[in-house]
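Re: the multi-chain job from yesterday

Posting the exact lines I submitted so nobody has to dig through the queue logs.
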Amino acid sequence: MINIDFDKMQGLAPAIIQDADDREVLMLGFMNQEALEKTLATGYATFYSRTRQKLWTKGETSGNRLRVVAASTDCDVDTILLRVQVEGGGVVCHEGTRSCFTKDLLAEDLLTKGSAEVAP
Amino acid sequence: MINIDFDKMQGLAPAIIQDADDREVLMLGFMNQEALEKTLATGYATFYSRTRQKLWTKGETSGNRLRVVAASTDCDVDTILLRVQVEGGGVVCHEGTRSCFTKDLLAEDLLTKGSAEVAP
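And the result, structure tokens for all chains:
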């Protein structure tokens, strides 16, 4: 078992949640050692809530649990990536969308800059 | 322009880097307001290094820059997702792999548990 470096964030590490099938990034949560152990032991994503300061298993009330298909960490062993299958209605975000990442940041600006900076 | 909530992490927010073409998650870095502004202004991902305590533009020495194709944030506006095209040799990780997420966490355990927990 690889030991995740939780020290950089005072006991926490970011955990990226990605759909195992279509690879959409669905959400990001934080885990402490206990949340990671529970996730790996149960096969369902459990996070540590920074605002509520306790563990929460995603979907425990909504039914939209995140079944972990694969789990990995990065070169610095300070970030977790979980590939999941979403159970229940398949909705991850509390705003009713599949992914939490629905708010565009200046997409038009980037497209303009991107095309302007394409190498000749 | 959406204002990212940098307060939860003392001025930082995690930024997930995803390949715009095949949707592979390549790395996670952290941004402060200045790094995000530079990223959106230049179209190339710039992060804040927690260990070196300064901005760094990914690929500025290796040439493997991350050209931002789309940028979004989540429901809590405290996490950034960038879809990028990797320039140069296409390698993102300093260990020589395309993605930084190469270390498996108990994949076999999860597979066993996953199949045991499949609903009948």
